[in-house]
Design brief:
The chain is an all-alpha fold. The chain has a single domain, classed as Orthogonal Bundle (TorD-like), CATH 1.10.3480.10. The protein has helices at 14-31, 36-43, 51-65, 68-79, 91-96, 102-114, 129-141, 150-160, 165-173, 182-202. The radius of gyration is 16 Å and the shape is globular. It starts with 13 loop residues before the first helix and ends with a helix.
Length: 203
Amino acid sequence: MTKAAAADATAVTDEDRLRADFYVLLSLLLTKAPDQAMLDQIAALDGDKSELGQGIALLAHLAASFTPDDAAREYNALFIGLGRGELLPYASYYLTGFLNEKPLALLRDHMAKLGLERDPQVKEPEDHIAALCEMMAGLITGDLGVSLDVADQHAFFNTHLATWAGHFFTDLEGAKGAKLYAPVGTIGRLFIEIEIEAFRLDG
């Protein structure tokens, strides 16, 4: 994703920085298979006794035992495959059953209003779950050139993620080919649930 022309100077709270970090983690893991450096970073993560913390701990444990080749094979089977992977991580597919449908058009319109442009080097449609997580992170922190207040974050999230991301992460959690990515599904599902509830309370 390319940046808008000018960044908003709005301060980012510690809570929002943590939210953005979760979006960044999900985006990185869903954009491509992790290399050794990323596997090492994930292996160093700490969880806690919460369900989300246990998901993080399991992901860290698995990352310590995976090689980049292992991760690449799993990623390819889940998301690429021969013709298609086990899962199609696009809003259009989850919401309509087809790729490149109205949800993508709505997203592109919203991006244009925010001054965001697709990176020409990226071949995937913008409604890929990784791209949407990247956008949410950038819109929280201002790293994409514009930061949104809570109401506008809610509008973007509710329109482009809340309607389907939880279903995708549930499918990833239970996917036949998911081992390293099963806890990614757990983390994503729980985080989306937390975001939905937090936005509801703020609203």
